[in-house]
């Protein structure tokens, strides 16, 4: 099923209760309801407040370093031998990934609302670093929840957060990864709800988070649209972005949803292969359920217990996905595919060697798929890859995979 | 009249308060849960809240998280929990049982199939922690049609408007969460609870049970004084954790914990 989306339809989503079709919503314990409703109301006011918007735009320009370039990957295009491959360089954002677009927006929201204590969850540590960064910039108290497993895997980012003044809480419960970090962040939030602002790092969580994170990240797609028209004289034929929770993908896709000619590809983590069950691809291989405050595609067992995930990339290692992606999948507007750990590593090496751009392992999933896709397309067509982050943080993982001790 | 309503009405007529213990089904092992439920009744329970284990219990503190992990290690599923209630009912047709848990296991089973199976097993009420009434349109009517009580939470942060709306969706009783926090955090302020519960009584005719932070006879009596019932969870689950190895010892320990609460509640001036 494919539905033609109009600007009008898009403006009406999510609906007043935070639903994108059958997905999204607000599934939280009662203690948080008032806080979420207040946040929604205040955000809807600030969204149209010129002073807030001017501050946000200024932060994005002067602090984050926007606009980021849309770069023609000439050698990669030549080697692939198909469509022109363009790169949206979110890896050039301050702190090295798109995450900071959202943390700048939410931290600004927190200061407009007078909240001085910030909490965040993090997997690979990129969102944690981006949160700690803006908290340092605005003088806010910062607590980051991170699975104990990830604290060990991503020690570099843990140290970065500490240098920035954040307190990092290692989460020992459950699988000790991102989903458990999110559980503990919610538990902290319930306990200190009056003084705390929870900066969620992706387009998941209870309403209004999927909406406001999308709004803050949409700067990616708006710039891409303008830059593509300037540089190629037309809209791109395809957009490719990796999907964990899906914030960089929705940021890229959203401003193009009504442009029917633009094909959208979200690339999930296929891990060791979908058929092995060891992956993190709920849209490709999961089913709808309720976790972390919203209804969305999930990886779960037959009894509704959340399943363990696997990905070489800690940032994609999550059993859920933003509800708007679930909706885009069901209406057929976006295509969701997966690439394996090995294919992603190949994408990582390729972009590094051919363009001198070292992508994050999350991003490498999008690169790997885009190369396959471009090869099937015509030379006068264009593909844009959202290069959501840079790969410096993954050096240890890559070295370990190659058996090298650093 | 539902079994829950009946029990609470009788207690009220006697000027007594309800003692509502919570345990997680399948903890420490699925084989002992029914036995423990009977123990709770012997120790003075008026209603049992039986927790359905979930992999990601976001509203719970470490004590109940670990109980869920123990239960899930033995593969305790929602279907098995329903079978436990059914077995409990072969010996006890009087004590109401409320299933307390998170939405996803019910969604995975299918709401209609779950509601049918719950009635068949002899469940009386359903309390879903992460299901506010706003999201319950598809689910709550299935419970109501089958005369299962839908029990919703009220919190210190709940506005008057919401207290009224939530009460309208509720039957049996409403569950007042005594403080802002997760289960087992133990920072209850009895005066604040008294003020809020008195206020809730002004807005709804439903009985009000109070949970979170009730650890002993003293807190049970203090909270019982101002409410219609007390819900006791983490301290029982912690007792289960500490006596996993010996079921007889465990049953004794649970009784030792509940008896003084029962006595304290029954000596309150009505």
Question: Explain this structure to me?
Answer:
The complex is a heterodimer of chains A (406) and B (270). Chain A has 406 residues and is of the alpha/beta class. Chain A is built from 17 helices and 14 strands. In chain A, the strands form three sheets. In chain A, strands 3-4-14-9-10-13 form a six-stranded mixed beta sheet, with helices on both faces. Chain A is globular, with a radius of gyration of 19 Å. The N and C termini of chain A lie far apart (50 Å). Chain B is α/β, with parallel strands linked by helices and 270 residues long. Helices cover 49% and strands 14% of the residues of chain B. A nine-stranded parallel beta sheet of chain B has the order 5-4-3-2-1-9-8-7-6. Chain B is globular, with a radius of gyration of 17 Å. The model of chain B has no long low-confidence stretch (mean pLDDT 96). Chains A and B meet through strand 2, helix 2, helix 9 and strand 11 of A and helix 3, helix 5 and strand 6 of B.
Features:
heterodimer; A: 406 residues; alpha/beta; four-stranded antiparallel beta sheet; 17 helices; B: 270 residues
Summarize the structure.
Chain A is of the alpha/beta class.
In terms of structural class, how would the helical and strand content of chain A be classed? alpha/beta
**Count, helices of chain B:** 12
Q: What is the makeup of the main sheet of chain A?
A: 6 strands, mixed
What distance lies between the first and last C-alpha atoms of chain A, to the nearest angstrom? 50 Å
Extended strand count of chain B: 9
Quaternary status: heterodimer
Fraction of residues of chain A in helices?
A: 40-55%
Shape of chain B: globular
Could you give the topology of this structure?
The complex is a heterodimer of chains A (406) and B (270).
Chain A (H helix, E strand, L loop, with lengths): L6 H5 L7 E2 L2 E5 L2 H17 L3 H15 L5 E3 L1 H7 L3 E6 L9 H14 L4 E6 L3 H13 L2 E7 H6 L1 H9 L3 E5 L6 H14 L4 E3 L10 H9 L1 H14 L5 E5 L4 H7 L9 E9 L10 H4 L1 E5 L1 E6 L24 H8 L3 E7 H15 L5 H15 L6 E6 L7 H7 L5
Parallel strand pairs in A: 4-14, 5-6, 5-8, 6-7, 9-10, 9-14, 10-13
Antiparallel strand pairs in A: 1-2, 2-12, 3-4, 11-12
Chain B lengths: L2 H11 L4 E7 L8 H10 L5 E4 L10 H12 L4 H12 L7 E5 L1 H7 L1 H11 L3 E4 L11 H6 L3 E3 L1 E2 L5 H10 L4 E4 L12 H14 L4 E4 L5 H10 L2 E4 L1 H9 L4 H20 L4
Parallel strand pairs in B: 1-2, 1-9, 2-3, 3-4, 4-5, 6-7, 7-8, 8-9
């Amino acid at each position: 099923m494919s539905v033609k989306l109009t600007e009008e339809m898009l403006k009406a989503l999510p609906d007043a209760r935070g639903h994108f079709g059958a997905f999204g919503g607000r599934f939280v314990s009662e203690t948080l309801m008032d806080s979420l409703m207040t946040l929604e109301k205040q955000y809807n006011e600030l969204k149209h407040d010129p002073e807030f918007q001017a501050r946000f735009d200024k932060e994005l320009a002067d602090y984050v370093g926007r606009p980021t370039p849309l770069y023609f990957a000439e050698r990669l295009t030549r080697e692939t031998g198909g469509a022109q491959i363009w790169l949206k360089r979110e890896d050039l954002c301050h702190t090295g990934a798109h995450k900071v677009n959202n943390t700048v927006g939410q931290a600004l929201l927190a200061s407009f609302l007078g909240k001085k204590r910030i909490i965040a969850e993090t997997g690979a540590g990129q969102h944690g670093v981006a949160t700690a960064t803006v908290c340092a910039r605005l003088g806010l108290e910062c607590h980051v929840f991170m699975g104990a497993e990830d604290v060990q895997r991503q020690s570099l980012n843990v140290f970065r957060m500490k240098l920035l003044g954040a307190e990092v809480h290692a989460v020992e419960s459950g699988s000790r990864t991102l989903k458990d970090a999110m559980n503990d962040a919610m538990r902290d939030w319930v306990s200190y709800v009056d003084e705390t602002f929870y900066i969620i790092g992706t387009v998941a969580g209870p309403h209004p988070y999927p909406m406001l994170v999308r709004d803050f990240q949409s700067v990616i797609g708006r710039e891409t649209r303008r830059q593509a028209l300037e540089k190629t004289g037309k809209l791109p034929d395809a957009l490719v972005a990796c999907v964990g929770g899906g914030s960089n993908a929705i940021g890229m896709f959203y401003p193009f949803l009504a442009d029917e000619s633009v094909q959208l590809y979200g690339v999930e983590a296929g891990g060791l292969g979908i058929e092995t069950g060891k992956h993190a691809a709920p849209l490709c291989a999961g089913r709808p359920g309720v976790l972390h405050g919203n209804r969305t595609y999930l990886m779960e067992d037959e009894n509704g217990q959340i399943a363990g995930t696997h990905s070489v990339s800690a940032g994609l290692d999550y059993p859920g996905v933003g509800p708007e992606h679930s909706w885009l999948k069901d209406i057929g507007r976006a295509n969701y595919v997966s690439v394996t750990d090995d294919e992603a590593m190949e994408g990582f090496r390729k972009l590094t060697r051919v363009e001198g751009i070292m992508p994050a392992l999350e991003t490498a999933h999008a690169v790997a798929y885009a190369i396959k896709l471009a090869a099937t397309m015509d030379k006068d067509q264009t593909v844009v890859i959202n290069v959501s982050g840079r790969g410096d943080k993954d050096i240890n993982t890559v070295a370990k995979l190659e058996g090298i001790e650093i | 009249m539902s079994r829950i309503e009946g029990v609470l009405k009788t207690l009220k007529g006697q000027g007594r308060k309800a003692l509502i213990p919570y345990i997680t089904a399948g903890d420490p092992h699925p084989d002992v849960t029914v036995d423990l439920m009977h123990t709770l009744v012997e120790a003075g329970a008026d209603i049992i809240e039986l927790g359905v284990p979930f992999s990601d219990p976001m509203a719970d503190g470490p004590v109940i998280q670990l109980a869920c992990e123990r239960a899930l290690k033995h593969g305790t599923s929602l279907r098995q929990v329903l079978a436990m209630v059914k077995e409990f009912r072969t010996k006890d047709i009087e004590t109401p049982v409320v299933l307390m848990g998170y939405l996803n296991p019910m969604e995975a089973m299918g709401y209609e199939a779950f509601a049918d199976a719950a009635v068949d097993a002899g469940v009386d009420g359903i309390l879903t922690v992460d299901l506010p009434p706003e999201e319950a349109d598809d689910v709550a009517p299935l419970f109501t049609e089958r005369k299962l009580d839908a029990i919703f939470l009220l919190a210190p942060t709940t506005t008057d408007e919401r207290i009224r709306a939530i009460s309208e969706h509720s039957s049996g009783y409403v569950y007042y969460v005594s403080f802002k926090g997760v289960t087992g955090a133990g920072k209850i302020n009895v005066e604040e609870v008294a003020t809020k519960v008195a206020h809730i009584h002004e807005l709804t005719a439903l009985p009000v049970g109070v949970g979170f932070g009730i650890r002993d006879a003293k807190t049970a009596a203090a909270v019982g004084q101002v409410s219609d019932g007390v819900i006791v969870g983490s301290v029982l689950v912690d007792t289960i954790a500490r006596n996993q190895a010996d079921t007889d010892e465990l049953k004794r320990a649970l009784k030792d914990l509940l008896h003084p609460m029962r006595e304290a509640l029954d000596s309150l001036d009505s």
